[in-house]
Structures are given as C-alpha cells and as structure tokens.
Amino acid sequence: MPDRSAQPSPQPIADLQIAVAAFVAGAGWLFSIHALAELPPLLFLGSRFIIAGLLIGLLAKFPSVADIGRAVRLLFPGAFAFAVAMMAWIFGLKHTTNPGVAAFISSTGNLLVPVFGLLFFGWPVGKRLWISITIALAGMALLFLGPDARVEAAHVYFVVSALLWAASIALVKRNSAKVGAVAAAAVQLVVSGVVILAVSSLAERMPTAIPPVEIWGWYLASILISTCLRFVLQFRGQQMISAARASVIMCCEPVWVLLFSLAFLGAPLGLSQMLGCAVILCAMVSQVVLPSKSPA
C-alpha cells in the first residue's frame, strides 16, 4: 500500500492559487481603468464578459445543447442581477477618483450574500454575520463621514453594485450545484455579457476611431488575466480548501487595489479613509475566523 502520509498536501498549492487570484483580481481594476480611457464602459464590460465566458466554457462539460439551455434557465435571474451590478460598478469606476476606497466599498457585498439568502430562501444567518456587518458599517462611516473623506457620486454606484452582486451570488449559489462551478461561471459571464451589450447598443455611441494599440493591450489583459485566469485559479483553489480559508485569502483583493491605486494612479487617501479600509477588512476577516455555532 502506498504511504499517503508522504504525499504532499494540496493546501499550499491551493493557497497559492487563491492568493494569485486575489492579486490578478486587484490588478483587474487597474486594467479596466486604463481600458476605459478609450472604450465605452458597457461595450468594454459586455464584450469582455462574453469572450471570457466562452473561453472558460471550453473547460466546462456540457453533455448537450439542452443542458446549456437548462443551465441558462436556472442561472438567468442571478446572471441578470450580476449584469446590473457590474454596470453600476463600471460606471462607478469610470467616475471615481480613488479606486482603492471603491474596492473596499464593493467588497462589503461578500458579507451580504447570506442576508440575501435569508431574504430569498430562508438561509440561516448567525450572530457572527451581524457582528461583521456592524463592523463594516463602521468602516463605511469612516469612508464617507471622516473629516478628510470625499463623498462622490461614484460611491453610490459601488454601494448599489455591492447589493446587487450579493443578490446575484445568492441566486446563482442556489442552482450552481446542479450545473457545476466552472459551467456556472461560464454561463453567468456570457448571459450577463449579452445583457450588458444589449444595453450598450441602446445607450452608448460606438467609437468613431480604432483605439490605440495600448488600449487593446489593457483590454486583452482584462479578459485573459483578470477574468479568465482569476476564475480558473479561484475555482481550482476552492476545490482543495475550505470556503472559509479561501474567503480570507480573497479578502486581499481590495488591499491590492488600494496599493495599485497609490503606486500607479497617485490616488489620494486620508487618515479616516485608511482607517475605514482597515475596519472593513477586519469585518471581512471576522466573518470567517470568529467562532460560530450557526451554519451561516
């Protein structure tokens, strides 16, 4: 019999995959900001999701066309909510002056997924979640109400995006087990991309000139690195470690966004905003490390 104790644990590899996924997700904010300099927001977002979804779909196993149709029917409500959430996100990103703060506002959507599960499907929610939400609200207050904070219209977009994103995750989570994680990601991206492009065709003007080469570089980086690579690494890593451990590592995403904003964009950050970001990060981490008797 082989000595299984001598085999290397998959946990370090999974941790590394999730950590890289968080890094490239944070870099995706930087890629998107540069691409939006020349591309209409909805056209950029919709085409990016469709192409990335089709590429990820190559890894999925759909036995027949009927199975694809079934997956679309099951996941359409969540994909539609995801599309609206990402449209709010892209408009916020287009107008924000501080992507780092915006990333921490958006990240609060992770805490709200069980709340929407409670509202939609009666999922049990424990005391730990309400503690985390309370901490996050305190951090949000520091972001918005501190003496050196700057309240922007873009912040409203990010709050709306966080709410709708949480709702979409709850809706997709209910049916993703029937489809498979990779297939669910592919369907969600393609369906939401189609919805976003439909809105783009009605509300946006197409570019009158071909964007410069560097813009296409940021566009391809958004598709291949911050969407395809991020989802593949995240899904593979999540299969080998607990969801709680993966969530803690993914909490690094807004931290990376903040660091990239300071390093490459020169985004200003006041003391109260720094404290607000730190408090929100504590709220996300406490959601998965505090002991709780509740399944939530």
Which regions have little confidence, pLDDT < 50, spanning 5+ residues? 1-7
Would you tell me the structural class of the helices and strands? Answer: mainly alpha
Helical percent range? over 70%
**If helices are DSSP runs of H or I spanning 4 or more residues, what is the number of helices?**
12
What is the overall pLDDT average?
83
SSE pattern, N- to C-terminal: HHHHHHHHHHHH
Assembly type of the shown chains?
A: single chain
Distance between the termini: 40 Å
* Largest sheet composition: none
Gross geometry: globular
Beta strands, count: 0
Cα-based radius of gyration, to the nearest Å? 19 Å
Proportion of β residues? Answer: under 5%
SSE blueprint and pairings:
Elements: H1 11-35, H2 41-57, H3 65-95, H4 99-107, H5 109-121, H6 127-145, H7 153-179, H8 181-203, H9 213-238, H10 243-250, H11 252-265, H12 271-289
Helix pairs in contact: 1-9, 1-10, 1-11, 2-8, 2-9, 3-7, 3-8, 4-7, 4-11, 4-12, 5-7, 6-12, 7-8, 10-12
Please describe what this structure looks like.
Helix 1 (11-35) packs antiparallel against helix 9 and helix 10 runs antiparallel to helix 12 (271-289). 46% of the residues are buried. With 296 residues, this protein is mainly alpha-helical. The model is unreliable at 1-7 (pLDDT under 50). The radius of gyration is 19 Å and the shape is globular. The chain is built from 12 helices and no strands.
